Amino acid sequence: MHPSRLARFAFAIAAVFAFTTSALAGPPLICHALEIGQAKTLPWIDFNYRNGNRGYDLKHLTTDTLGILDSGAPALVRMETLRRATIYARQDPQVAKELITKLQARAADGNNALATFDFGYLVEAYKQWMGPNEPNPARGLDGYALVTKAVRTRGGDAEMEFAAALITLSGPEAAHREHVQRATAGAKGDALLAQNLAASLGNQTMSALLAQRAKDAQK
């Protein structure tokens, strides 16, 4: 790519990121809602992310969550659904246990990449949102390993790479950088993923975008 075009690309990306959060504050899997367009997910009326819809009946949480996950939804929708489910589940330890137990059972044979991803992402969301003195059925489990296994099983999935990038925001740095780069490369054909990358990872993502574009220009 001509240097002037690369400079204009950098300026355009920077302008977009000026209106987005440069880095997540708080638990990265919890505090920032993901953009999923018109896709179906769990109800969410209260804009306080700590509570969700206070009129929602937690008895339906596991059934409703599984209904969305079993519909074949893309990873971004699964991530937002599990984010909301985690916030709801924290309100009732029995519900939290039921949900993670069901997802663990779905992933038990290890052959379903989406089920493996769902279980792994929920594990990491629980670990980020539930306090050290609370009952946490995800304690001692490695959700990141399950998410990366799901990525390998699917032969690469840019939205799942984004999930792994969020999980590794606090490290390890090398793994996080690799996930960001792979998610960024896949975002060129996925507008929602590009939007979520910008909103969630900010300037860090801009650097990865520019690096990828420079690499492409050299081919």
Low-confidence runs of at least 5 consecutive residues: 5-24
Q: Which value, in Å, is the CA radius of gyration?
A: 18 Å
Strand content: under 5%
Count of spatially separate domains: 1
Cα separation of the termini: 9 Å
Q: How would you state the average pLDDT, rounded?
A: 84
What is the helix/strand order? HHHHHHHHH
Give the proportion of residues in helices: 55-70%
Q: Total strand count, please?
A: 0
Task: Describe the largest sheet.
Answer: none
- Envelope shape: globular
The helix/strand class is mainly alpha
Number of helices: 9
Tell me about this structure.
The protein contains nine helices and no strands. By secondary structure, it is an all-alpha fold. Helix 3 packs parallel to helix 5, helix 4 packs antiparallel against helix 5 and helix 7 packs across helix 9. The longest helix has 27 residues. About 9% of the residues have low confidence.
Could you give the topology of this structure?
Elements: H1 3-17, H2 61-69, H3 75-89, H4 93-106, H5 113-129, H6 143-153, H7 158-167, H8 173-187, H9 191-217
Helix pairs in contact: 1-9, 2-3, 2-4, 3-5, 4-5, 5-6, 6-7, 7-8, 7-9, 8-9
Summarize the structure.
By secondary structure, the chain is mostly helical. 61% of the residues lie in helices and 0% in strands. It has nine helices and no strands.
List keywords for this structure.
mainly alpha, 219 residues, 9 helices
